[in-house]
Amino acid sequence: MNNITNHMPTAELQAIDAAHHMHPFSANKSLGEKGARIITRAEGVTLTDSEGQSILDAMAGLWCVNIGYGRDELADVAARQMKELPYYNTFFMSSHVPAIALSQKLAELAPGDLNHVFYASGGSEANDTNLRMVRAYWAALGKPEKFNVISRKNAYHGTSMGSGSLGGMASIHSQGGLPIPGIHHIGQPYWYLEGGDMSPEEFGIMRARELEQKIDELGEDKVAAFIAEPIQGAGGVIIPPSTYWPEVNRICRERDILLIADEVITGFGRTGEWFGSEYYDIQPDIMTVAKGITSGYIPLGASIVSDKVAEVIGRDDFNHGYTYSGHPVACAVALENLRIIEEEKIVDHVRDEAGPYLAEKWHQLADHPFVGETTIVGMMASLALTADKSSRKPFKAKPGTVGLMTRERCFGNNLIMRHVYDRMIVAPPLVMTKSDIDVLFERAVQSLDEAYKNVKDAGLLETAD
Ligand code: PXG
Question: What's the whole-model pTM score?
Fold first, then answer.
């Protein structure tokens, strides 16, 4: 594992990368100036970069490498499937064994009557499917005017025209003319920054009732669905107050709208249950999955659909699909990944061992002078950086300035811990051991100490008025 893959010198790779490779959510100009960090290999929970540095990956790639890196079983299954049937489509009354077997497995694992699977290549595509499916559902029932979809500010559902519109991020909407018509955003259950003088419980109810108000404002007969992540991931690991989901559940039960749970991050063990919907006792009509379904080894996304919705959609052609819907290699890899999660009891490991141990360590960070709150469910955690522990006021500096300075120190200490504005977040591979978590904690403390000093020295340890 200490071998470095034979490759060009890092600086040359960086120059070519900046010249020819356009990166997501990055300014190529700054890639040219600073150079990308080039990852060459990975094993377990550790990445190796082109300079031979070992880095602890506390983000599981992009929230996806649930079973950790370097599992040969997945590579072997992919190779076998590629030799046997590398591709065939699922259009025009065709099917194949991997898609059939995976659909059966997902129907078994998914809660309630979510028994039908429509495949995509990732979460954005799956949410585009969902948007069309909920509108097609109501149209098939003779209610084409039930067309509007309600989502939340600071939600992340992908970046295609449909999924980017469903998401509630202003920075995504501002490029390319989003959101598309018929999508409406209500407030998020982010108590720490938005809760004011309310208790978290009062605030949770208040934000849930915005859904009811929005349904009333638009008219129940005009609303197709509500979409939400059980816990917002990319928005900063926003864990809702305990009152939020029960109230949303009540509203969805009483109102005739569909509920889409976007489980792209919370699915496949992240919360210590198979799905976040089980953690919060949510009964979705459609669940979006991707990422952890293959532990990121190969692209795959899916919409897992209830009996009720599938029956209506199945009455006529659903004019939708992707060349790679149900790709046989992706489905075969997903099945093997799910076998490993089940047989190695990885969900139990999160719920009973790694999750509680990470929580114990994570909450110790709350004593740090730079930390305002720590929150965690299963293996997704976040903390708020603060200049003043006695209030929940944001920094005076532009949001994200202090978070970025902190992330720089994490990277400097070979820890992948991300920032979302001025929150720091982790979502490690679910297979992390207690000793991996000890390393995570040591590096996190060191990075917080260093960043705190840098922020202080730069005169940025100040709250907004
Ligand atoms: N829904 C949710 C809840 C997600 O987190 C998507 C949909 C879109 O999936 P695809 O496979 O199309 O990317 C996601 C993706 C980040 C980050 O910076 C988060 C995601 C993707 C890239 C970056 O936290 N989540």
Answer: 0.98
